[in-house]
Amino acid sequence: MKERKNQNNAIYVGIDVGGTSIKFGIFDKNKNLIDKFSINTEIKKNCNEKHLINAIFDIVSEYCNSKKLKENKILGIGFAMPGPVINNKLLHAVNINWKKEYDIVSATKKRFGKNTKVCVLNDANAAALGEYNYTLKEKYESICLITLGTGVGTGIIINGKLIEGKSGIAGEVSHIRVDYSDSAVKCNCGNIGCVETMASCTGLINIYNRLINKDSTTKNIYRDNQSSKNGAREIIHLAKRGDSVALNALNIALDNLSKLIVILMHVYEPEVILIGGGMSNAGAIITNIIKKHLKEKVFMTKLLPNVMIAKLKNDAGLCGAVVNL
Amino acid sequence: MKERKNQNNAIYVGIDVGGTSIKFGIFDKNKNLIDKFSINTEIKKNCNEKHLINAIFDIVSEYCNSKKLKENKILGIGFAMPGPVINNKLLHAVNINWKKEYDIVSATKKRFGKNTKVCVLNDANAAALGEYNYTLKEKYESICLITLGTGVGTGIIINGKLIEGKSGIAGEVSHIRVDYSDSAVKCNCGNIGCVETMASCTGLINIYNRLINKDSTTKNIYRDNQSSKNGAREIIHLAKRGDSVALNALNIALDNLSKLIVILMHVYEPEVILIGGGMSNAGAIITNIIKKHLKEKVFMTKLLPNVMIAKLKNDAGLCGAVVNL
To answer: Which chain A residues in 107-146 lie under 8 Å from chain B, judged by CB atoms?
Structure first.
């Protein structure tokens, strides 16, 4: 096939759009990440889909200008978006005030030329695809990325392929119920006891506070903590220092997570469970507790998946966005 | 590529080995099922892997003799086996006294020639592959077959491919826990409240008996019923006639099953849930109750998979065994 664009100095652009920031990654023609930057996401009340996408395009153009790079050197642009995506179509995205479907592919081709390749993925799926392709694909075929942040993001790769499903619900395993006890918390999705609410940073804080309230001798320092990541970090810090309540809370949260992992094993037997997100910065304490709970639940330990900390961190979505271009 | 065997009158053989019978299916070169028969499985105490496989080979040879068909007309033989299979290797199979791994592929090639294609699958996976390839693949890409019999067998197809996993546990979703109540029953696998024990024919009888025992005015007719299929059939018969206890039991069993289906939706969004096994003979009452429970659990009804009765019945394993030859 004839090359459609001259590939000298050609680039791919990965864009990871979130509620608080928009990250941009510049990749060479071999999809090595060569530059990156981010901007704050300012979503004004009347900002609609078209405004936001045009603002993003302008930033890409400005970058090209600043590097004296002609826009026709852009081989492709990949988007990691915070909402359900089906066949390159983002259905909606509450965090960025994106209320209806908008044709990102057409808009991108209109702006940067019809030969520009475009890919639109859900952000958690993009992160899984990025981690898999950039760090694991030489050794493994099936993985699950689980990011433990304010919520729980998940993305599934089976036999080397991202699982998206016909309506974008596939891979959303954080809304599987794992806590059937009386203390199970209601999730934003409408269900109760989802992994999302019982194993995220927010979940960890809730569990810690519940335990603290049982034990009146300990001060509840996280009750009014607005930042779930900071709160979770402090609880993990206490756990590392041997605080029994904090360690107990971390055990309960990650036991909930291990129930999800056992379910995934029965469905498609992932070889690797990658833990990402804010909580993963705590490192081995997280993976060790998860492994301990898995061993309690699965008798044949040779069946257990590898549990590892994700490597790409904030670049995962950017990298995943360009994989299929 | 040169044809290795003359394909005139050539056949494929599918063999579905179970604890009570061994089924044989004869397929033409286009894999249409043209003949079938079965024999009782007589597993004597000292019968080992080699004895059984040779007995099976002898029956294939006898069939060829009786049809005046040369054995070199056998293009391939596929096996559906009652135990975990990895890469064409059956690890073990309790029901047929198969205690260790045995190389079925080599044994088959030794007996019928090295160009004979051989495929070994787990029986539930073979059934899923058979149902998918013979009845659904024109319209769908991802399905789950759930057979409700003495236990619950399951097989998963994602993007047209059977999911087997690296150690054969993938697709064994009947051992996912769905009942977290006090009445959850212990499963043979060692866990509690698995779909296997809470939604099978055996599970239905257990639930019915538990309800009956609460209500002392109703006679417990299934307490000593040894045949789970007959017992389940009678309960469903009562339910169809409006018996409230039987209907309640059926609702509880299929509610347990619907919890599994919701989990599968979150993982890979199957487009079709195929219900097979003895309980599926009851027809629409089964699928209607499952659909009702799914609607209660999933708000966006357009996300719901099609719930249908499997079509191939006892031929599913035979058909699946030859698909990959």
So the answer is: 142
User: Residue A45 to residues A23, A41, A49, A83, B89: CA-CA distances in angstroms?
Assistant: 21, 12, 12, 19, 61
Cβ neighbours of residue B138 under 8 Å, at least 6 residues apart?
none
Of A161, A167, A265, the CB nearest to B169: A265
What CA–CA distance (Å, rounded) separates B304 from B125? 23
Distance of CA B267 to the CA centre of its chain: 21
Contact B266/A158, CB-based, under 8 Å?
no
Alpha helices in chain B, H assignment, sequence order:
49-66, 104-112, 123-131, 195-198, 201-214, 228-240, 244-268, 284-297, 316-323
pLDDT in tens, B287-321: 999 999 999 988 777 889 999 999 999 999 999 99
As beta bridge partners, residue A161 has A158
Tell me the whole-structure pTM to 2 decimals: 0.90
Q: What is the pLDDT of residues A88-123, one digit of tens each?
A: 999 888 878 888 888 999 999 999 999 999 999 999
CB contact at 8 A, B219 and B211: no
Cβ neighbours of A269 in B, within 8 Å:
163, 165-167, 169-170
DSSP code string of B135-201 = IITTT-S-EEEEEESSSEEEEEEETTEE---SSS-TT-GGGSB---STTPPBPTTS-BSBHHHHTSH
Interface membership of B179 toward A (CB under 8 Å): no
3-state secondary structure of A155: strand
Cα Rg of chain B, angstroms = 21
Give B16's strand partners.
B23, B80
Quote the CA–CA distance of B303 and B270 in Å, as a whole number: 10
